[in-house]
Amino acid sequence: MLYSVGLMRTFTRRGLLASTSLLAAAGAAPKRLIGVTMMPEFIQNEGIDGVLRNLVERAGVNAVTTSPYVMELADERTGSREPPIDADAGKVRLLDRPLWGMRELFVRTAPSFAHNFKLFEGLRYQPAQATELTRQHGGLIKDFIREAQRRKVKVYFQVQAAIPPGYRVQFGGPKPEDAPRLPDGRIPPRRLANNGSLGRVEVQRYLSALIRDIFKNYPEIDGL
Predict the structure, then answer these.
(1) What is the reported pLDDT for 6?
(2) Contacts of residue 167, Cβ cutoff 8 Å, sequence gap at least 6
(3) HSE of 183 in the Cβ direction (CA atoms, 13 Å)?
(4) What span, in angstroms and rounded, lies between the C-alpha atoms of 49 and 102?
(5) 3-state secondary structure the chain
(6) 6-48 pLDDT, tens digit each
(7) How do residues 100-118 score in pLDDT, each as one tens digit?
(8) Are 110 and 130 spatial neighbours (Cβ–Cβ below 8 Å)?
């Protein structure tokens, strides 16, 4: 996994820990955001306190990005591979950091909150329904936000803007009429992710409703 520091540099996990530890040892407080993307499944696996202790105390992180979903184990028939296939290039890729003790697995997700479907009335794309997984584990995301901000860490969300319903690249995608196209009108045959075109009105409308819904449910986040 790679981590962005400021706007210019990218580190491996080991490199990030080493560089930020040097800053801490020298007593140099970072004057810019040191941000890490931490997906919900790792928070579920390692616990809020364990994750934040590693990020804040060991790495000196002061901003974290996560997403409004939760995850559980599935099988090949009912789930999607983690890590993702990514246009077949990811078939041999394994997780650096195990999930549920595995470096390759099948999973399914659910939103971490219950959507307000009135915001999506008449739209081509609809968000995912809350499930038992939402009810059992969705509160973890609010707990994580609260505890991170208590430790002076800014919390942001990322969503897959053009992959309705917008949580993970494996679990959504546009209708063919909203797919991005080449100048000759063809849909590219080997796309990395199943993105829709941001120029399509239906994609824009869904994204607008999704953003409003997220901020109504998570007004405390620092950004999206």
Answers:
(1) 40
(2) 67, 68, 69, 109, 111, 128, 159, 160
(3) 0
(4) 22
(5) CEEEECCCEEEEHHHHHHHHHHHHHCCCCCCCCEEEECCHHHHHHHCHHHHHHHHHHHCCCCEEEECCEEEEECCCCCCEEECCCCCCCCCCCCCCCCECCECCEEEEEEECCCCCHHHHCCCCCCCCCCCHHHHHHCHHHHHHHHHHHHCCCEEEECCCCCCCCCCCHHHCCCCHHHCCCCCCCCCCCCCCCCCCCCCCHHHHHHHHHHHHHHHHHCCCCCEC
(6) 433 444 555 555 555 555 555 555 568 899 999 999 999 999 9
(7) 999 999 999 999 999 999 9
(8) yes
CA distance 36 to 47: 16
Give the long-range contacts of residues 21-30, CB within 8 A, separation 24 or more.
Answer: 21/58, 21/59, 21/60, 23/60, 24/60, 30/60, 30/62
**Which tokens hold the place of 104?**
């390759």
pTM of the model: 0.81
Do residues 1 and 97 lie in contact, with contact meaning Cβ atoms separated by under 8 Å?
A: yes
Domain spans, the chain: 2-217
- For the stretch 5-15, what's the b/e string if a residue is b when 16 or more beta carbons lie within 10 angstroms of its beta carbon? beeeeebeeee
Do residues 58 and 17 touch, judged by C-beta distance below 8 A? Answer: yes
pLDDT in tens, 136-151: 999 999 999 999 999 9
